[in-house]
Design brief:
Blueprint: E1 6-8, H1 10-47, H2 59-85, H3 95-121, H4 123-139, H5 152-163, H6 190-197, H7 250-291, E2 303-305, H8 312-339
Antiparallel strand pairs: 1-2
Protein name: Retinal outer segment membrane protein 1a
Transmembrane segments: 59-79, 100-122, 254-275
InterPro entries: Peripherin/rom-1, Peripherin/rom-1_CS, Peripherin_LEL, Tetraspanin/Peripherin, Tetraspanin_EC2_sf
Length: 344
């Protein structure tokens, strides 16, 4: 059963070829944009690598860069076909290449759609990666003398100021770690000794936060130490006071930032996907309409073009069966070689 059969007079074929040539170059530019968007997202994720536990989310920009480059080649190839479609003598040379071309093009077009879906579906993976990464970042904040962690304090401070956030979940996360290095503690001080002795792990914990948690928009000078001690500050109530700190946690801030970026990119790539699909559908109509002209003296006759020669199911099976036969043959060869008797 032929799917979407249409009649194509000579003038309609010419207009289709000309319009498709222009559309393919638009899709080429869109492919370059897709690659660029993938590079931008990759760069942003790498900038925050120190507060991420894994790089699973990098599958999104990596896929975008791959399909962007593939789209460039696919659409440049399509523009060449469109040029030759205007000449009935030159078009037949593409006949043997079009079937594998459509197979490769459909694969990368579907991959582009998967990249769009992943850009919306990676929130859980991103959040879990940031949860562990930020927890470790806060824990190693004080290790400015440890190789590999020298810039951890600087990175966390810049992160909190740039995204106007504090801690992992909120500012209280800083109460649970020793974020001041031992080299800056006076161990002859009774207060320091008492704090260390009062902790089971021998850590110097305090109800304070780094300076980067301070909110410059607050009219009150920053209170970053003894946050839970009402008597330590004039006219201050810890439970009811609107603290002059950033109240949002950095995990929430980063998830919101990256998901906003990926959702925006996803919407753009979805438009590219629709454009790419239009190129492939139009090229298929042009191919089938031009095949009827091959070998005919009158190249200006009316021809019929269609999207699929058979039903969708039969067409899919036509592509899958050779692949399945290849792997089945390879498997049989492997089993035969393993069962071969050893030489005496």
């Amino acid at each position: 059963m032929v799917v979407m059969k249409m009649k194509f007079p000579f003038q309609k074929r010419v207009k289709l070829a000309q319009g498709l040539w222009l559309l393919s170059w638009c899709a080429t530019v869109a492919g370059a944009i897709t690659f660029t968007l993938g590079c931008i997202l990759k760069t942003e994720l790498r900038r925050r690598a120190e507060v991420m536990d894994n790089s699973d989310v990098h599958v999104v920009p990596n896929t975008l860069m791959i399909v962007g480059l593939a789209s460039l080649g696919i659409n440049i190839f399509a523009s060449k076909i469109c040029q030759d479609a205007l000449d009935a003598e030159r078009f037949p040379r593409w006949k043997n290449m079009l079937k594998p071309y459509f197979a490769v093009s459909c694969f990368f077009t579907v991959l582009m759609l998967l990249a769009v879906i992943m850009s919306y579906a990676m929130k859980g993976s991103l959040e879990s990666s940031l949860k562990v990464g930020l927890k470790n970042g806060i824990r190693f904040y004080k290790d400015t003398d440890t190789p590999g962690r020298c810039f951890q304090k600087q990175n966390i401070d810049r992160l909190q100021m740039e995204f106007q956030c504090c801690g992992n979940n909120d500012f209280r996360d800083w109460f649970e770690v020793q974020w001041i290095s031992n080299r800056y503690l006076d161990f002859s001080s009774k207060e320091v000794k008492d704090r260390i002795k009062s902790n089971v792990d021998g850590r110097y914990l305090l109800d304070g936060v780094p300076f980067s948690c301070c909110n410059p928009s607050s009219p009150r000078p920053c209170i970053q130490y003894q946050l839970t001690n009402n008597s330590a500050h004039f006219n201050y109530e810890y439970q009811t006071e609107e603290l002059n700190l950033y109240l949002r946690g950095c995990r929430e801030a980063l998830v919101s930032y990256f998901m906003g970026l990926m959702n925006t990119i996803g919407a753009g790539v979805l438009s590219v996907f629709l454009l790419q699909g239009s190129v492939l559908v139009s090229l298929r109509f042009l191919q089938t309409a031009m095949e009827a002209v091959a070998g005919n003296e009158n190249t200006e006759i009316e021809t019929e073009g269609y999207l699929l020669e058979k039903s969708v199911k039969d067409t899919v099976m036509e592509f899958i069966e050779p692949v399945m036969q290849f792997f089945l043959f390879k498997n049989q060869v492997g089993e035969g070689s393993s069962e071969a008797p050893a030489d005496p």
